[in-house]
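Q: A reviewer asked whether we had any structural model of the full assembly, not just the individual parts. We don't, so I'm hoping you can provide one. Inputs are below.
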Amino acid sequence: GENVEQHPSTLSVQEGDSAVIKCTYSDSASNYFPWYKQELGKGPQLIIDIRSNVGEKKDQRIAVTLNKTAKHFSLHITETQPEDSAVYFCAANGGSYIPTFGRGTSLIVHP
Amino acid sequence: DAGVIQSPRHEVTEMGQEVTLRCKPISGHDYLFWYRQTMMRGLELLIYFNNNVPIDDSGMPEDRFSAKMPNASFSTLKIQPSEPRDSAVYFCASSSLGRDTEAFFGQGTRLTVV
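A: Here is a predicted structure for the entire assembly that you could use as a starting point for your response.
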């Protein structure tokens, strides 16, 4: 099955800095890579996704990049704000087309 | 739509007791997933259903865990008997088509077994 590795597990930045979270996956059949944000006491919520026919996607301050050859993808958050503080999960759908999640990154943005 | 609805939000029970977690998926969604979240193991997929039929339960940790989906609008996850190591947050999620699409998560049930 699919195996998704996510780094770092914790990321601490100052407000206004950029944050980058990286993930690798193992199953070359994966073609859908969503990113979820989980705020305290809530369930994960999709913030952006990318499909395998695209190398990069942007939505305001967040962007994702995908390198299918190397089997890695990244989440980039620019101009971080305190409300960006949360746990972020990457996922890949693998050959079963059901998402396998990374272990999560706790992002802390200091005012 | 109100989103995926889970109940209860919090459950505290004694070891050995039966626990039932409930989920109402988003209307029209044909995939339903049960996940368990712990610090040690992150988000683990326990089981998923397609059109009310269990497709893959390989993530269910032990025979003490069982899940049902009697109709398109309701699913349960039961633990009998419960053990302290079952303490975790349990999420239900639903999606349309399953593959390549967003999964919508409920608020979760925080289970504590003492």
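A: Points you may want to mention in the reply: Chain B has a mean pLDDT of 93. The two ends of chain B are 36 Å apart (CA to CA).
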